[in-house]
Amino acid sequence: MRDGQQALDYLFGEGEFADRAGRELPAVVLLDINLPRVGGLDVLARLRADARTRLVPVVILTSSDEQRDRLRSYEGGCNSFVRKPLEFSDFAQTVAQLGIYWVATNEPAQ
Question: Which domain CATH number covers 82?
């Protein structure tokens, strides 16, 4: 996704993704705090405020190492906070590990 608004449109089947309305939600949502247009924490708040997406696991995957960002993320209802590695190969490995855990290992609420 390009930005937070596009992510929201996709998840809620709105705008350019209106044809997705009522379709299955992703197994996990990866969010960066610093998304353009609508920030990651605002996307998280919207997901947690809606009954359809309240239980979808959300991982904050960000370059921020600020304690306040971690705290705001968990207070907002994220399931995990992961700092993005700087090297692309390390980033790809981190995303792969997250996928294995959230898709293959984790027992979802739904």
Answer: 3.40.50.2300
Q: Are the C-beta atoms of residues 58 and 79 closer than 8 Å to each other?
A: yes
Q: Model's pTM, two decimal places?
A: 0.89
Which helix (H) or strand (E) segment is 96 a member of? helix 88-99
Residues 6+ apart with CB under 8 A from 85: 91, 93, 94
Q: Which amino acid is at 27?
A: A
pLDDT tens for 56-100 read 999 999 999 899 999 999 999 999 999 999 999 999 999 999 999
Look-up of token digits 């609508």: 38
